[in-house]
Amino acid sequence: MTALLDDPLDAAALLRAGALVAFATETVYGLGADARNGKAVAAIFEAKGRPHFNPLICHFPDAESAWAEVRADARARALAAAFWPGPLTLVLPRRADCRIDLLAGAGLDTLAVRVPAHEGALALLRAAATPIAAPSANRSGRVSPTSAAHVMQELSGRIAAILEGGECAVGVESTVLDLARGGAALLRPGGVPVEAIEAVIGPVGRPLPLHAGAAPTLRSPGMMLSHYAPSLPLRLEAQSVAPDEALLAFGAPLPGAALSYQLSEGRDLREAASRLFAGLRALDQPGLAGIAAMPVPGDGLGPAIRDRLARAAEPRK
Ligand code: TXA
Ligand code: MG
To answer: How far, in Å, from the CA of 254 to the mean position of ligand 2?
Structure first.
């Protein structure tokens, strides 16, 4: 049985005891474990069916507690001052005395850290008084959850509890930025647009565009091509829609779909990001031939939305 909790103190007590607790952040729901407890961290991989080479993000209540585990240079500190709490994850070198379980970082000498902008998450982090390792609270390869009900659909019976935290305001995962190897490299577009990061630290290296046959690298182990996948095939950049297709609309909807979900009537990318994963879930209905997604522009949160759609469109292996 998976309990639905309202009180961060109850959730913190479970985490301290080594249990898995899902909780809301401003981006998506995370599946949390005490990041210093190796058994609890291992249980995350098991509950999600996640490959062990894919490292987890560690969450902290404030930047100072993150800097106790990783080495922050001036750029990391400037970015934390600008965007934390918020949807930015920094990959930094582990300190020699880092107390985070090695499995959480998949054995790498770097660690991904962030401070989420969500009152419930921050209350949980403060009450637990330990860093919380948390990937998105979905089964590996599936659409990320943006409500407690989504988490129940994904993980009911596999985890101890869910801390109710409402619907996630941002709706796509954090931007992941690698600062551990000299330069600055974007590993995953997300809730903080890369232009906003460049305004603080200067040029950031962009990932190569998605291409078939791309393999996850050690630098960016989680960027597997097929990810965030609904059961139905997804067709990108749709200019028309068939009567047996569902439509993921952005702006004035294409006519004739069997079922449709509006990301943002007024073509607002923030609104579209916040509704993206709920939309993919709502359209993933039996009896349909597929989902047709209308084009989304490439500015602001557009790259994060397009990245998730491109991965969702990849056939599952
Ligand atoms: O918004 C988010 O980031 C959410 C919430 C719960 O915080 N979390 C999330 O976690 O999306 P997850 O596990 O689904 O994605 C983490 C990404 C993966 O692509 C992983 O490979 C990458 O971060 N990552 C984690 N640690 C890393 C490291 N040391 N080096 C390179 N990439 C890393
Ligand atoms: Mg994920």
So the answer is: 30
